[in-house]
Write a structure and sequence with these properties.
about 325 residues; 16 helices; transmembrane
Length: about 325
C-alpha cells in the first residue's frame, strides 16, 4: 500500500511539474475537442489495440495447450484493463484475467501465468523492434548508445530462454543448494518455466505471430499520437519526430515508477519532441501523450460490460486468491 501511494504521488508530481514548466497546455487539449472526428479515429486505433492484445494472448495460451475462444480472451482482456484502471489494488488485471481462465483449466496454472508473462515480453519485443527500425531516424549523437541498448535487449530477450533450456541442469544444481523446502518450491517453478519455454520452442510460428501483432499494436498507438497532434494543430513536429518521440514515450511509460507510467511517458515524449524540432518552439508536446493516455483509459470503460457479465466468476476468482497462491507454490 505504501509503495502504491508513493507511485501515485510520483505520477501526480510529474504531471504538476509538466504543467508548471508548460509541457502540458490545456488550450491544446481544448483545441483537440474541435476536431472530434480525428480524435474519434485516434480512439478507434487505441480501442483496436485491445482486440490485438486479446488475439495475441489467445495464441500464446494455445501454444501451451490452454485453449479458449477469442471472445473469452477479449472479454477477459477488457476485464483486466477495467481492473487496472478503475479497481486498482491487490488484484491486478493480469491476475483477474488469468484467474478467469484458471476456472476452466485448473491443471494449467503455471501455463496461464507464463502466457501472461510472455504476453508482456512479446509486447516489449515489438516495441524494441520498432525502436530498432527507427534507429536511423534518431539524431546522430544518440544513435550509438540507443542502438547498443536496443540490440542488447533484443539479444538477451531471444537468448535467455534458449540459455535456460540448454543449461537447465546447471540451474537445477544451483537451486538444490537452497534449503530443501525452498529448493522444492523453486524446482517446481523452474520445471514449469522450462516446460513452457520448450512449448514455445516447438511453436516458434506462434511467437513470431505474437511479436508481429505487438509491432502492429504499437504502430496503431503511434498513429493515434500523430492524429492527436494534428487535432491540436501542432505542425512543428514531423511524422518522423512523432515516431521517435512516441517510441521514447512508450518506453518511458513502461518504467514502474508511477501508475502506468503516469507523467513519465508524457515527460519523455515532450522532451524528445523538443530535441527533434527543426526550429525550436515552446510547444507543449506532452499534451499529446496525455490526451492519448486519457483515450486509452477510456477504452477500459468497455470492460464494464464483460465485468458485469462475469461478475460472479470474478468474485469467486478473487476469493480464490489464497488457494491459487498455494497451488503456485
Amino acid at each position: 500500500m505504501i509503495f502504491t501511494i508513493l507511485k501515485i504521488c510520483i505520477g501526480i508530481g510529474c504531471l504538476v511539474a509538466l504543467f508548471h514548466y508548460n509541457f502540458i497546455d490545456f488550450q491544446l487539449l481544448g483545441k483537440a475537442s474541435s476536431s472530434l472526428v480525428t480524435v474519434a479515429i485516434a480512439f478507434s486505433c487505441l480501442l483496436f489495440t485491445v482486440f490485438i492484445g486479446a488475439l495475441r494472448w489467445q495464441i500464446l495460451m494455445g501454444s501451451l495447450q490452454v485453449q479458449i475462444t477469442f471472445i473469452r480472451s477479449l472479454n477477459y482482456t477488457f476485464i483486466g484493463q477495467f481492473f487496472n484502471v478503475f479497481l486498482p489494488g491487490a488484484y491486478g488485471g493480469d491476475f483477474i484475467r488469468g484467474g478467469l481462465v484458471y476456472r476452466q483449466h485448473r491443471d494449467k496454472l503455471g501455463e496461464i501465468m507464463m502466457s501472461s508473462l510472455v504476453d508482456r515480453l512479446t509486447g516489449l519485443v515489438g516495441l524494441l523492434i520498432i525502436a530498432f527500425a527507427v534507429l536511423a531516424l534518431i539524431p546522430n549523437q544518440f544513435q550509438f548508445w540507443i542502438g547498443i541498448i536496443v540490440v542488447s535487449c533484443l539479444a538477451i530477450g531471444f537468448a535467455a530462454p534458449v540459455f535456460v533450456v540448454r543449461f537447465q541442469s546447471l540451474f537445477r544444481a544451483i537451486i538444490r543448494v537452497f534449503p530443501n523446502a525452498v529448493a522444492k518450491i523453486l524446482l517446481r517453478i523452474f520445471d514449469t518455466v522450462v516446460e513452457c519455454f520448450e512449448g514455445y520452442n516447438h511453436r516458434k510460428r506462434d511467437l513470431i505471430v505474437a511479436i508481429s501483432l505487438s509491432v502492429f499494436q504499437y504502430i496503431l498507438v503511434l498513429e493515434a499520437l500523430y492524429l492527436l497532434g494534428g487535432a491540436m494543430e501542432i505542425t512543428s513536429l514531423s511524422w518522423i519526430g512523432y515516431i521517435v518521440s512516441g517510441v521514447a514515450g512508450l518506453f518511458a511509460n513502461a518504467i514502474p515508477l508511477s501508475p502506468g507510467g503516469l507523467g513519465i511517458g508524457e515527460a519523455a515524449f515532450g522532451q524528445v519532441a523538443h530535441l527533434l524540432e527543426p526550429v525550436p518552439t515552446e510547444t507543449a508536446y506532452s499534451s499529446i501523450f496525455l490526451l492519448m493516455r486519457t483515450l486509452t483509459l477510456l477504452t477500459a470503460v468497455f470492460g464494464l460490460i464483460p465485468f458485469l457479465f462475469y461478475r460472479d466468476a470474478i468474485n469467486a476468482t478473487r476469493m480464490q486468491n489464497e488457494p491459487l497462491q498455494k497451488n503456485e507454490g
